[in-house]
Amino acid sequence: SQGIGSRVSFLEIKGIVFDMDGTMVDNKAFHDAAWLEFCKLNNPHINITEFLTKYSGKNNTAILELVFGHPLTQSEVEKYGAMKESLYRSLYAPHCKPIEGLISLLHQAKQAGLRLAVATSAPRANVTFTLEKCGLTDVDGLFDVVVDSSMVTESKPSPQIFLCAASQLGLDPRECLCFEDSRPGVTAAISAGMITVGIATELSETDLKSIGVVEAHKDFTTVNLYQLLLHQQQQRLLHQQLHIISSSMTMETEENEKWMEMVRVVLNAFDEKRFEELHDILLLPPPPASSVLTSY
Description:
By secondary structure, the protein is of the alpha/beta class. It has eleven helices and six strands.
């Protein structure tokens, strides 16, 4: 029978990567307000409604192209970017706070021995501002890695920023959970190979689930980290066991082929992260008695 072969198996979760804007802090309204003010000053004729739907998840280089309608020089990007971000920080400073439940989850993750990273399209000045306002300075030692817009060349939905974060953590991307809020961000995290959980600040929980997150929450208070890690471990072990059993079947019979096809359906659900379909595993019968299984 045809072997399962070169599928990617699940790895143990060893780290968590957090997007920042919209995930760690609910700040989109303040970015919107800052961009509105910036556009009034620099391009009052822009279609604001269209612009506000397109900029999420992008870095300032890409966003400023949307504002001006053409690429800018690096010096122009730096000048205009600094202007907009200064507007944003002045607007958000009195209101900046972590999303409910974030601090508790970060401490749970560290107690569980997980490595933590921030991976954000924001510039470093905004990252420093946000972490300080949320009481998450480097002194606390909660985050092992911070990746900002200056460290990558591609905006989300490119997975580059998440691949960079995993690399700096010393982990395979498949060993990471990722928390994200935006469509480009979720796409980027999943493309990187990360198990992705949605925080519903920009999109609804239903919309987040429709684009591939394994869970969606309004904030971190309803995230059960230990249950989430246990669930991923159970799925990893089940995935490995199915591989072992299927690769041990040596007799090519019609009965074996039918069972193997059912295994392929389940493994495809694993590989494509369609976890909601995995309840079908309960319907998977044991291997046929006629199979010859090697010991394992």
